[in-house]
Amino acid sequence: AGNVTDGRGGWIAGTLGDDGSVVDPLQAFAAWQAQQTAAASAGACANTTIGCVLTNAALTKTQCKKVAQVAHDGFARAIFPVHTQGDGDAIFALASGPVEADADVVSIMAATAMEQAVRNGVLHAHGAAGLKSASDLG
């Protein structure tokens, strides 16, 4: 369960401390690990981030796999920590088009788009079921 960064060293959203502010994710993660056994028996789960890259580029199956792998860089730029043992993070890439494009360029663009999508999703989300969103944090 990682915090979402603003790209400038601050947090947009994440684990909240007792005072309602976003706390350091490594400290929160250490506390979570200490309680992991009890939480697992109670049915608690970790966070999973899922994304999809769609392009009109003419890519092979192998190239799509690489685009999906590189798009994970966007997760790493926007979420910290990310890809922990308890996460089920996944990105799928689909290419449907006739446009000739360099797969490396598509990959780089996909990573940047994924980073922006994570931040935009968090910034535009609304709290629900008693959970706060970034807009609730001010």
UniProtKB/TrEMBL annotation:
Belongs to the peptidase S58 family. Gene3D superfamilies: L-amino peptidase D-ALA esterase/amidase. It holds the Pfam family Peptidase_S58. One of its GO terms (molecular function) is aminopeptidase activity. This is Peptidase S58 family protein. It comes from Muribaculaceae bacterium Z82. InterPro entries: ArgJ-like_dom_sf, Peptidase_S58_DmpA.
